[in-house]
């Protein structure tokens, strides 16, 4: 039984250069509907199920002074400390759509030893997106 102190995982916030562009890109490239883009264009959300993926500007007064500034990677050899992962029934089709929509290809989908097909792209801000198949349960003997 969950206690009153057990939280629900509500948001993953992605810090981006342009919230409106990122919302549009993620909607087109990864197939999500836009839930919200506020009038200031400083907050946006996608319809992603139980946990929301949200976007906010890299630099903002409310957080920079309190929690520190966001430091994007300085080159394509570096990456963020977080990776956004989406699962699809057909990873090849999803990967192709993402690249055709402006995602930067990193590695095409390939079958991994743990039974999942996985490919990687980067978004408009260089954030790594892992696109994978749903993990298949182990086969019973």
Automatic annotation (TrEMBL):
InterPro entries: Glyas_Bleomycin-R_OHBP_Dase, Glyas_Fos-R_dOase_dom, GlyoxalaseI/FosfomycinResist, VOC_core. Gene3D superfamilies: 2,3-Dihydroxybiphenyl 1,2-Dioxygenase, domain 1. It holds the Pfam family Glyoxalase. Residues 8-134 form the VOC domain. This is VOC domain-containing protein. It comes from Punica granatum (Pomegranate). The lineage of its organism: Eukaryota, Viridiplantae, Streptophyta, Embryophyta, Tracheophyta.
